[in-house]
Amino acid sequence: MQTKEEAFKRLAGSKFRSSFSLTSEDKVYIEQKGMETIRRHAEDFVRQKLAPAHPKNDGKQTPMRGHPVFKAMHATACCCRGCLNKWYRIPVGVELSDDLQTRIVDFLMAWIERQTAEPSK
To answer: Within 13 A of 52's CA, how many CA atoms are on the CB side?
Structure first.
């Protein structure tokens, strides 16, 4: 299994994945809500959009904007089961374990933390 750093390095090599970044508005939202609330949102989104063996509208279930976690999901290739399979070899058609869901949320939050530490674009 790759480390977070290895995954971030690999994602940086993708023109599409590396095109995502948090806006100043996203950062204000995160600051207002707090990282614990953002984490709870990430947990909910992962549970609803990725955890089922066959998510509804898989491949189209994660909006491109509207919430910082959605951007994180696309930036980290954790947006649908197809991307999870392609980038992390997580099997399609199998419900995600609680442990795996937590690892995905941790990765999403690591991306968000990196983004909030950088100047806004």
So the answer is: 10
Given a contact cutoff of 8 angstroms between Cβ atoms, the answer to whether 76 and 11 are in contact is yes
Q: In which domain, by residue range, is 97 found?
A: 4-117
The residues, ordered by sequence, that sit 6+ positions from 99 with a Cβ below 8 Å of its Cβ are none
Q: What's the total number of domains in the chain?
A: 1
Predicted confidence (pLDDT) per residue in 29-59, tens digit: 999 999 999 999 999 999 999 999 999 888 7
The percent of residues above 90 in pLDDT, for the chain, comes to: 83
**30: Cβ–Cβ under 8 A, 6 or more apart, which residues?**
22, 38, 68, 112, 116
